[in-house]
What does this fold into?
Amino acid sequence: MRHFFGFTKEPFSPDIKLDELYHSAALEGVKERFLYAVSLGAISVITGDVGSGKSTALRYASGGLHPSQYHVIPVIASTGSVIEVFKQICIALDINWNSTSLTRLMHTIRETVAEIAKRRQVPVLIIDEASLLRIEVFAQLHTLGQFEMDSKPVLPIILAGQNNLLDKLMYITSRPLASRIIGRSHLEGLRRKDMAGYLKHHLGIAGIKEQLFSDEAVLAIHQGSGGLLRRANLLAKGSLVAAAREKCTVVSAEHVRMASTEIF
Ligand SMILES: Nc1ncnc2c1ncn2[C@@H]1O[C@H](COP(=O)(O)OP(=O)(O)OP(=O)(O)O)[C@@H](O)[C@H]1O
Ligand SMILES: [Mg+2]
It folds into this structure.
């Protein structure tokens, strides 16, 4: 397929570089809210369906934080206990813990957060897949950046996850955390009118300037993916393979249909 169309690299590849991203209003909105929460030491929440671009948006937004001024603490959430999650935070902070007591772990993390702040860096805790976290974790998370003497929290937190993250934040025990949220972004699927541009953008990254997808193929990819980017990418790539197999230089809706039988 690569040779047939003359791509210079694999099209629709998942490991897209930051400077090659498709810039949607939603992507910029996430970055804006992310940076606003960071500037205030507050919390921002990003939700969206599977494959809507949450992790990529996190990567893009945190790319706006200069390493000399910010210390990013990236965590991929698990369904583990509070202790497990706090251990993950220790790993992300590159610190050793020598206790399995929750109090000691919290103390160690808080000390490190305070040290980072003393170095005049802003620590930023970024938790992807936060919808997996247990309710108990939400009850404790905000205390990591709260210091008795200081009313301003020093640890901004960004939470990204599927839509049920919001349900978990509504629990009464999550209220102290939820009350610190100052920005909420929701990533929806791409609109129909943006899909052609999105596909063309990906073709361009792989070295092809022309639109290889017919209008019907664009529509079929939009309908088959609900505008969700990972699924759209899989359909696009699969349909390019199907078109190349038939030596067609333009992808048709039938090629998209063939691709859709291969994916979930
Ligand atoms: N702005 C963008 N421009 C181009 N491609 C993108 C963009 N955002 C996401 N993608 C592509 O879409 C795919 C899905 O994105 P991503 O993994 O960020 O979604 P997600 O919402 O985090 O998914 P999950 O719910 O599985 O965690 C990736 O392959 C990524 O390369
Ligand atoms: Mg993700």
In short: The first helix runs from residue 2 to 5. The pocket of magnesium ion (ligand 2) is lined by residues 54-55, 128 (CB under 6 Å). Residues 190-260 form a domain with the Helicase, Ruva Protein; domain 3 fold (CATH 1.10.8.60). Residues 100 and 164 are 30 Å apart (CA to CA).
